[in-house]
């Protein structure tokens, strides 16, 4: 919050500067600037010159000036009056004494302060499912990728016209975007109906020569490089939001790109459920009967020693605490569950068969061997 005295100072300055400066120049724009250009310029400049941030001499005046320029140029009606008749026209429009909006209200309403007023449409969000290997989910990673999206054409800055001179006020509607037609409903009695101008689609302007770069489409396709930062243990379905990276258009403020992260299911390998990890280990009948010591290479390459004394039943699950997935945003790890699968040899040599027989049945085994 600003001290009241500063408010007072700003309002005094306000009256002085606004009369003097061209509103387009204040926003560093040309007369053909689109609605989107105006918003973008205000967004950039108002942040730059906000008195909370910028203590340079002159920044305050600039902030006030920018707010006033935005307030007028973002309002179709006021902009049209300003374009034709300048500040004097605006004053006349307001009934002699022009009502200036509080520059801080303009700022907070723009940045979501809930001032009401008209809200710019937001473009659609784009959602992408991204499959990430478990190893990357375990250690964390930076993954480079590209998204194809529409960006405003550089050449025409989203106007679709070859130059500012090629944007003409629509003759059919005189720039209002609406057509008023009179219909006779009774002899001598007329009704007025208002409809969107079909010549200009309600824009009030027509383009006589299309932009050669985008063929009048206003946007061009662009392949944008991006980086997705995977934090260790990122949960399945976690959404990484790239704000304002969606398709651009002069008709809206770009939406977000949402990357929904999923763990890749790798066949026969590691499986994950939340912070738990699962691994299926295959052991021989000898290991199952006599016990074993094995090395398991974990997702990041470190070795986990698996050992079991005595008999291991097929399907036995061993819990190894703290060797699961990292807990997202915290310290520590979940558990690792090892399920043992016992394989029997395909064939026993006669020597082995004899020895096993003796082991199981003692001397009584002799004779059965001939069967
Ligand atoms: Zn263009
Ligand atoms: Zn028109």
TrEMBL record:
<feature type="zinc finger region" description="CR-type">
    <location>
        <begin position="140"/>
        <end position="223"/>
    </location>
</feature>
<dbReference type="Pfam" id="PF01556">
    <property type="entry name" value="DnaJ_C"/>
</dbReference>
<dbReference type="InterPro" id="IPR001305">
    <property type="entry name" value="HSP_DnaJ_Cys-rich_dom"/>
</dbReference>
<dbReference type="GO" id="GO:0009408">
    <property type="term" value="P:response to heat"/>
</dbReference>
<keyword id="KW-0862">Zinc</keyword>
<dbReference type="Pfam" id="PF00226">
    <property type="entry name" value="DnaJ"/>
</dbReference>
<feature type="domain" description="J">
    <location>
        <begin position="22"/>
        <end position="86"/>
    </location>
</feature>
<keyword id="KW-0732">Signal</keyword>
<dbReference type="InterPro" id="IPR036869">
    <property type="entry name" value="J_dom_sf"/>
</dbReference>
<feature type="signal peptide">
    <location>
        <begin position="1"/>
        <end position="19"/>
    </location>
</feature>
<keyword id="KW-0863">Zinc-finger</keyword>
<keyword id="KW-0677">Repeat</keyword>
<dbReference type="Pfam" id="PF00684">
    <property type="entry name" value="DnaJ_CXXCXGXG"/>
</dbReference>
<dbReference type="GO" id="GO:0030544">
    <property type="term" value="F:Hsp70 protein binding"/>
</dbReference>
<keyword id="KW-0143">Chaperone</keyword>
<keyword id="KW-0479">Metal-binding</keyword>
<feature type="domain" description="CR-type">
    <location>
        <begin position="140"/>
        <end position="223"/>
    </location>
</feature>
<dbReference type="GO" id="GO:0051082">
    <property type="term" value="F:unfolded protein binding"/>
</dbReference>
<dbReference type="InterPro" id="IPR044713">
    <property type="entry name" value="DNJA1/2-like"/>
</dbReference>
<dbReference type="GO" id="GO:0005524">
    <property type="term" value="F:ATP binding"/>
</dbReference>
<dbReference type="InterPro" id="IPR001623">
    <property type="entry name" value="DnaJ_domain"/>
</dbReference>
<dbReference type="InterPro" id="IPR018253">
    <property type="entry name" value="DnaJ_domain_CS"/>
</dbReference>
<dbReference type="GO" id="GO:0008270">
    <property type="term" value="F:zinc ion binding"/>
</dbReference>
<protein>
    <recommendedName>
        <fullName>DnaJ-domain-containing protein</fullName>
    </recommendedName>
</protein>
<dbReference type="InterPro" id="IPR002939">
    <property type="entry name" value="DnaJ_C"/>
</dbReference>
<dbReference type="InterPro" id="IPR008971">
    <property type="entry name" value="HSP40/DnaJ_pept-bd"/>
</dbReference>
<dbReference type="InterPro" id="IPR036410">
    <property type="entry name" value="HSP_DnaJ_Cys-rich_dom_sf"/>
</dbReference>
<dbReference type="GO" id="GO:0006457">
    <property type="term" value="P:protein folding"/>
</dbReference>
<dbReference type="InterPro" id="IPR012724">
    <property type="entry name" value="DnaJ"/>
</dbReference>
